[in-house]
Write a structure and sequence with these properties.
By secondary structure, the chain is of the alpha/beta class. It has twelve helices and twelve strands. The chain is 41% helix and 19% strand.
């Protein structure tokens, strides 16, 4: 097949790990007779420096025209002024809206050989295989925002958590659908004891379960979910939640895998290109040192092949190659090893068939 892929390396270690992801895509193309055309664009801080915008209209247009988008990371100390009118994160939020990707999928699996890399007790990690589905284009991050100085001289700010019923329903539908390829258990996470948006979320989740009786549903408050993710993570199968809750819980779940560098993500909508990225940030403290873990990006490439390009066999072969490399003791520094970024990718490519 032929596919157009936009690369958005971004900031910090983003260019390093995206380069490794491209190497894996090139290997897949050679092994399976595919043709991948790449178009590299700017996003985040580097785009602000060049264009004064975290995502230009041209870059957004190129992404919409592609079959898939591979992103590295955005942000860093250089652009870390909270009062700045233009910030790197604006590019990422704008990209998600532009592409209409409303669901962020973050699989969290614990490799048996990496159990010791996690601070949790080994018995807590046995059998952990969670798919977190985070609503991506609603909630606090996109709701109305105000800032004013009150009559007594104080500053008052608001961030509105806004949701339409259809925004909630489509991500719930996806969660139930994907659970059928797993263990058919969905945990819907909310804060229904406090928030009206969560009460609507719980109402719709209950109705969705009633229409999908082959899938078991349980509701869980977000504070309880945060505790259970470290106390009893194996209890979860598919976990679905709103934007901010999902952002926090998935970063917490990274501790299960031993490193944020291990975890991939896929952001999907109703057709159009998907957006694929590792969940780690730009890690400016290690940028340029060739020690970043490329696995989160490489596994994101596997998700791209699976969900956007419908190439299941190559996707599964990448995941197997990563598993074999880890089993054989290949480790970057974040996992207690010594392999450089490219050397880790080489080990994975050597096992790719």
């Amino acid at each position: 097949m032929q596919a157009k892929i936009v690369l958005l390396p971004g900031d910090g270690i983003g260019p390093e790990v995206v380069s490794e992801g491209r190497r894996v895509l090139d290997a897949v193309a050679r092994l399976h007779g595919h043709t991948f055309q790449y178009d590299e664009q700017l996003i985040g801080g580097c785009s602000i420096d060049r264009h004064g915008s975290a995502l230009t209209d041209e870059a957004a247009s190129k992404c919409r025209e592609a079959d898939a988008v591979l992103l590295g990371a955005v942000g860093g100390p250089k652009w870390d002024d909270p009062s700045a009118k233009v910030r790197p994160e604006q590019g990422l939020l704008a990209l998600r809206k532009n592409l209409g990707v409303f669901a962020n999928l973050r699989p969290v699996k614990v490799h048996p050989a990496l159990i010791d890399a996690s601070p949790l007790k080994p018995e807590k990690l046995a059998g952990v295989d969670v798919l977190v589905i985070r609503e991506l284009t609603g909630g606090l991050y996109f709701g109305a925002k105000t800032r004013e100085t009150t009559a007594d001289g104080h500053v008052k700010v608001t961030d509105a958590m806004e949701y339409h019923d259809y925004e909630i329903q489509r991500v719930l539908d996806l969660a139930f659908r994907l659970s059928r390829g797993r263990r058919r258990r969905v945990t819907s996470v909310d804060k229904a004891n406090v928030l009206d948006t969560s009460r609507l979320w719980r109402q719709l989740a209950t109705a969705t379960a009633a229409a999908n009786t082959d899938v078991a549903l349980d509701h869980m408050l977000v504070d309880t979910a945060a505790m259970q993710l470290v106390a009893n993570p194996a209890r979860f199968d598919v976990l679905v939640t709103e934007n901010m809750f999902g952002d926090i819980l998935t970063d917490e779940a990274a501790v299960l895998a031993g490193s944020m560098g291990m975890l991939p993500s896929a952001s999907l909508g109703d057709g159009g290109p998907g957006l694929y990225e590792p969940i780690h940030g730009s890690a400016p403290d290690i940028a340029g040192k060739s020690i970043a873990n490329p696995i989160g990006t490489i596994l994101s490439v596997a998700l791209m092949l699976r969900y956007s390009l419908t190439l299941e066999q190559p996707a599964a072969s990448i995941e197997r190659a990563v598993d074999l490399a880890i089993t054989d003791g290949c480790r970057t520094r974040d996992l207690g090893g010594t392999l450089a970024t490219s050397a880790m990718t080489n080990e994975i490519l050597n096992r790719l068939g």
